[in-house]
Amino acid sequence: MKNGFYCGLVLMICFFTLGMGNMEGDDVVNIPEPEQNYSVTLVDQSDVSIDLEEFSCDGMTWFIGNFGKTEVSVDYDRLKSVFFLLHDENIKARLHLKDGKVIELVVDGKKPCYGVSSFGNCRIEMQDIKTVSIHGKAQKKE
Hints:
By secondary structure, this protein is mostly beta strands. The protein has one helix at about 1-15, and strands at about 40-45, 50-55, 60-65, 70-75, 80-85, 90-95, 100-105, 110-115, 120-125, 130-135. A hairpin with a 4-residue loop joins strand 8 and strand 9.
């Protein structure tokens, strides 16, 4: 009798705690609000294109990476487009500046980028991006 009670108690505890875990992938994509609202067209590694506003990488409106041994940050205002390339184990970002110059930075491929599309919030890691075309600042939505 006593063993049946404990067995039933354990089963009830298991039943009630079963649904308490966090199932990954069911979370809402919350985007950090960037200082400026940039409009971009992003193409991922599977050639899917999406127009985004409020685009940022980890909440920042500049690309950060290494240029040799120097850490560099380039503001979106100076950028025309960015192409991402897998090089060995590194992700290289080829930045095309508005003044015609091209520089390559080694970036953190795991860094998340965010934006708002016409149908929802988006999050993607840099390693999954193929290109980003920056159209400029857009008006903030009220």
